[in-house]
């Protein structure tokens, strides 16, 4: 594990949120889809179950996407992360739950709006990347036909493809076919 468990989980949740409208169209277009996402990532606390809440999560998703896009420019990314921390009024406190008995940070009250809590925790996880000198772990999928994001938690930072669109397998198959066609002189069937 490169980072604390809660940091890694929150980074993965942020990645999944950003990708929820990138790979296969809108996947979080209604409250049941938002609930499924929240439940799959273990988000606790207040849920309003209204259109305003859904739109605020969509706004957070766009904002996080801009942070991923700026990851190659540390100063710009840090400015965006700091703005998100400030806008969410992040106030760290230690807690633990029966389902997660290890101590971890929460950065907003369980009574704060959902997008505020999510934004605060995601911003703090991104801040952990910056503090560790690991911002380059935020990547855009290297497949030419994909704009999904990924967080590369591999030891050697070698991950290039997202999990959203089976991009790694598609690229490896295409490369294999290209090599094979050069070896045999056959046309490549794509």
Overall description:
With 190 residues, the chain is mainly alpha-helical. The chain has a single domain (5-184), classed as Jann2411-like fold (Orthogonal Bundle), CATH 1.10.3300. The chain has helices at residues 5-19, 31-41, 51-69, 74-87, 114-131, 167-184; strands spanning 93-97, 100-106, 138-140, 149-151. It has a two-stranded antiparallel sheet. Strands 3-4 form a two-stranded antiparallel ribbon. Strand 1 (93-97) and strand 2 (100-106) form a beta hairpin. It starts with a helix and ends in a 6-residue tail after the last helix.
Give a nutshell description of this structure:
The longest helix has 19 residues, at 51-69.
CATH class: Mainly Alpha
Strand order of the largest sheet: 1-2
**CATH superfamily label:** Jann2411-like domain
In the predicted model, the low-confidence regions spanning at least 5 consecutive residues are none
CATH structural fold name: Jann2411-like fold
Task: List its traits.
190 residues, globular, two-stranded antiparallel ribbon, 4 strands, Jann2411-like fold, mainly alpha
Please describe the topology of this protein.
Blueprint: H1 5-19, H2 31-41, H3 51-69, H4 74-87, E1 93-97, E2 100-106, H5 114-131, E3 138-140, E4 149-151, H6 167-184
Antiparallel strand pairs: 1-2, 3-4
């Amino acid at each position: 594990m490169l980072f604390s468990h809660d940091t890694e989980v929150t980074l993965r949740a942020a990645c999944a949120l950003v990708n929820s409208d990138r790979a296969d169209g809108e996947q979080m277009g209604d409250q049941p889809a938002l609930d499924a996402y929240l439940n799959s990532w273990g988000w606790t606390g207040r849920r309003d179950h209204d259109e305003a809440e859904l739109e605020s999560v969509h706004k957070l998703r766009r904002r996080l996407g801009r942070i991923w896009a700026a990851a190659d420019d540390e100063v710009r990314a840090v400015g965006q992360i700091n703005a998100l921390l400030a806008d969410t009024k992040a106030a760290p406190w230690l807690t633990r739950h029966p389902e997660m008995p290890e101590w971890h940070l929460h950065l907003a009250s369980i009574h704060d709006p959902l997008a505020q809590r999510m934004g605060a925790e995601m911003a703090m996880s991104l801040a952990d990347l910056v503090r560790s000198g690991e911002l380059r772990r935020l990547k855009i999928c290297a497949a030419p036909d994909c704009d999904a994001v990924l967080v590369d938690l591999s030891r050697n930072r070698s991950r290039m493809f997202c999990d959203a669109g089976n991009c790694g397998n598609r690229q490896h198959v295409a490369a294999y076919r290209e090599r094979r066609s050069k070896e045999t002189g056959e046309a490549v069937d794509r």
